Amino acid sequence: MTLKITNLSLAYDGQAIFQNLSLDLSPGSITGMIGPNGAGKSSLVKAMLGLVARENGQVQFNNQPLDLRKHRIAYVEQRKNLDLTFPIQVKTLVETGSYGQLGLFRKPGAREKAASRKAMQQVQIEDLADRQIGQLSGGQLQRAFVARAILQDADLIILDEPFVGIDAESEAQIMKILRLWKDEGRTILVIHHDLSKVHDYFDELILMNRGIIQAGPSQQVFTAENLAQVFNPDFATIYFQEGPQ
After folding, report:
1. How many CB atoms lie within 10 A of CB 245?
2. Where are the domains of the chain?
3. Which residues have CB under 8 Å from 27's CB, separation 6+?
4. Residue 6: helix, strand or coil by DSSP?
5. pLDDT, tens digit, for every residue of 52-85?
């Protein structure tokens, strides 16, 4: 199921973040989005999902307005934006992934609770089920949100900086699930910051800085020339001379 963004524009306080941005995301691949702080990556996701008001543009998923497909979307926001004092246990958080399928006024039953336990087992956090979310490490929390996304059974999965401040084991567990989703033909978008993982993690890559600089297969897009446009020429030169490739 293809995600199609057409002529999307967003501004905050009269200042343009991006203008007439168009982009297609294909199913059955993991797409990474990279750019400097303030490039508009998170703003693009929020505008796409209707979480902030966009000036103009259309967003379609499977040839339908995205607003009609929200029950088929899993969105994991940046950890820094979450209220970790909220009194909710891990198992309850994961169970909320079933709400979209249950509908209004229905609570998770035995079937949903069993699915929740299975999802927690998949990401190896079943022993944390009774913890309040603020008691989790960064990696444990991200795994809990991925478990919730498993329960959502979404066609479109969006993760905003999921690997920031987490341990290597959690990162590996999350990537394992993302690759399973890829093999199932789902559409996956990951906002990311670690350039060294681009070729290992992403089939497709979006380079962004107040608009799309380049987008396409990672091997073609991740070049010194393109990085120079996104960051700066000195950074790109140093990275490709001395950094991992």
Report:
1. 12
2. 3-242
3. 1, 2, 155, 185, 186, 187
4. strand
5. 999 999 999 989 999 888 888 999 988 888 888 8
- Quickly list DSSP for 146-197: HHHHHHHT-SEEEEESTTTT--HHHHHHHHHHHHHHHHTT-EEEEE---GGG
What are the E-state strand segments in the chain?
3-12, 15-25, 29-34, 56-61, 64-65, 73-76, 156-160, 187-191, 204-208, 212-217
The reported pLDDT for the residue numbered 105 is: 63
Token readout for 7 is 């002529």
E strand or H helix that includes residue 111: helix 110-122
Q: How far apart are CA 33 and CA 215, in angstroms?
A: 9
Residue 186 CB coordination number (10 Å)? 21
Class level of CATH domain 3-242: alpha beta
Distance CA 230, CA 192 (A): 14
